[in-house]
Amino acid sequence: MNVLEAIEKRHSYRGMYKDIPVPRRDLIKIMEAGLAAPSGCNKQTTSLIAIDDPEVLKKLHSVIVPPIGETAPAAICVLTQRIKAYRDKCYAIQDYAAAIENMLLEAVELGYQSCWYEGHVTDDDNIGEKMAKILNVPEGYELICFLPIGIGESEPALPNKKPFAERAWFNSFGATE
Fold first, then answer.
1. Is residue 57 part of a domain?
2. In what order do the strands lie in the sheet with 46-51?
3. Which helix (H) or strand (E) holds 152?
4. Residue 171 belongs to a domain
5. DSSP characters for 50-105?
6. pLDDT tens-digit readout, 71-123
7. How many domains would you assign to the chain?
8. Could you tell me the CATH number of the domain that includes residue 97?
9. Residue 174, in any domain of the structure
């Protein structure tokens, strides 16, 4: 599979997962792809925790309400540090977004499905903080994303995408030539 094929095949998967373990070597490949992402001023603000222990997954799912990805045999939690990089600007959001996209693409390349759950984890009910406590995340790190990883029982539902010509142009906004 080439990069464009992986990009086109990647879609958010919110279905059930097959009860097939994800080998650690695959979780490592997915995390390596995430850590290879660009990072603003090379501050490397993104850290990752892979979870493949069913008991730890069960503890995490006990605090995720409403439930998400609960049949996935593995997950990756994405952590960030809000470090100022350049002229008092913080690029942590860009850093972890690039890392997450890389991981989602590598997961597809390896035959897995996933979904980028961020808002659900960082909402006002503090699910991310509860998850961080379970995972012994130290102060100074924020758990901002949960990626269930596994083989889907079905294909993801494909979203409707606007045509290229409605969202991309050359030389000027809306230009058709």
1. yes
2. 46-51, 74-80, 142-149
3. none
4. no
5. EE--HHHHHHHHHH-SS--STT-SEEEEEEE---EEETTEE-HHHHHHHHHHHHHH
6. 999 999 999 998 888 888 888 889 999 999 999 999 999 999 999 999 989 98
7. 1
8. 3.40.109.10
9. no
